[in-house]
């Protein structure tokens, strides 16, 4: 509750109160010593809700500044995360495209080159995802052979060509250089009694050879 009074009734100067006058006014009101001048006539005190405009304004202003600062910082952080995310996506896309166009850029294990790209004749590179798709995720229903080297699966490429995919199992894989030498040799061998090499997969730690599919024939696994 606040009490509104006229300054000239209490103040000696009629313009403002000093500290001692504030203390005196509080004492006079508490002890009911103060008497209004005759000009006032009958009077009584009215209590009104007190609305402080001194300290709260500064606090509100400070809170607004803090909130604005936090908002700006969050916005900058969000923009930074978006930029970093877009950059990472672009880098990943660039690596994927480079791998598709030149899968031998990191031919060796651990990203080390074991030599230049294989010199192939007619054979092409397939990604591991392509091999999964054309064999129905290497389904047992697509398996047509097995041996010490690994399993052989029947698959259908996106162009409709039926192929036999020889997938090496763990423990029987060659080194990158040996595998490259093998596919170079196989891609150059063409004979009516030999199964032709369509391509190979050297991706995600997998080694596969993709041959022409011979109905009712066998593909020897060595």
From TrEMBL:
<feature type="domain" description="Protein kinase">
    <location>
        <begin position="138"/>
        <end position="222"/>
    </location>
</feature>
<feature type="transmembrane region" description="Helical">
    <location>
        <begin position="66"/>
        <end position="89"/>
    </location>
</feature>
<dbReference type="GO" id="GO:0005524">
    <property type="term" value="F:ATP binding"/>
</dbReference>
<keyword id="KW-0067">ATP-binding</keyword>
<keyword id="KW-0677">Repeat</keyword>
<dbReference type="InterPro" id="IPR001245">
    <property type="entry name" value="Ser-Thr/Tyr_kinase_cat_dom"/>
</dbReference>
<keyword id="KW-0547">Nucleotide-binding</keyword>
<dbReference type="GO" id="GO:0004672">
    <property type="term" value="F:protein kinase activity"/>
</dbReference>
<keyword id="KW-0732">Signal</keyword>
<keyword id="KW-0472">Membrane</keyword>
<feature type="binding site">
    <location>
        <position position="166"/>
    </location>
    <ligand>
        <name>ATP</name>
    </ligand>
</feature>
<dbReference type="InterPro" id="IPR000719">
    <property type="entry name" value="Prot_kinase_dom"/>
</dbReference>
<dbReference type="GO" id="GO:0016020">
    <property type="term" value="C:membrane"/>
</dbReference>
<keyword id="KW-0325">Glycoprotein</keyword>
<dbReference type="InterPro" id="IPR011009">
    <property type="entry name" value="Kinase-like_dom_sf"/>
</dbReference>
<protein>
    <recommendedName>
        <fullName>Protein kinase domain-containing protein</fullName>
    </recommendedName>
</protein>
<keyword id="KW-1133">Transmembrane helix</keyword>
<dbReference type="InterPro" id="IPR017441">
    <property type="entry name" value="Protein_kinase_ATP_BS"/>
</dbReference>
<keyword id="KW-0812">Transmembrane</keyword>
<dbReference type="Pfam" id="PF07714">
    <property type="entry name" value="PK_Tyr_Ser-Thr"/>
</dbReference>
């Amino acid at each position: 509750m606040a009490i509104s009074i006229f300054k000239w009734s209490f103040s000696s100067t009629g313009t403002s109160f000093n500290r001692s006058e504030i203390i005196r006014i509080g004492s006079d009101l508490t002890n009911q010593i103060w008497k209004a001048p005759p000009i006032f006539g009958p009077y009584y005190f009215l209590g009104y809700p007190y609305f402080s405009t001194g300290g709260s304004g500064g606090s509100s202003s400070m809170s607004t500044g803090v909130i604005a600062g936090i908002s700006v910082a969050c916005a900058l952080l969000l923009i930074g995360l978006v930029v970093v995310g877009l950059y990472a996506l672009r880098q990943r896309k660039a690596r994927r495209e480079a791998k598709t166009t030149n899968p031998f850029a990191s031919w060796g294990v651990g990203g080390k080159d074991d030599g230049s790209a294989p010199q192939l004749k007619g054979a092409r590179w397939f990604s591991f995802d392509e091999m999964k798709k054309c064999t129905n995720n290497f389904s047992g229903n697509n398996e047509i052979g097995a041996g010490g080297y690994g399993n052989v699966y029947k698959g259908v490429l996106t162009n409709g060509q039926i192929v036999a995919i020889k997938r090496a199992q763990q423990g029987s894989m060659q080194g990158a250089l040996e595998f490259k030498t093998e596919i170079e040799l196989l891609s150059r061998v063409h004979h009516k009694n030999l199964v032709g090499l369509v391509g190979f997969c050297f991706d995600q730690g997998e080694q596969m050879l993709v041959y022409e599919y011979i109905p009712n024939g066998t593909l020897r696994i060595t």
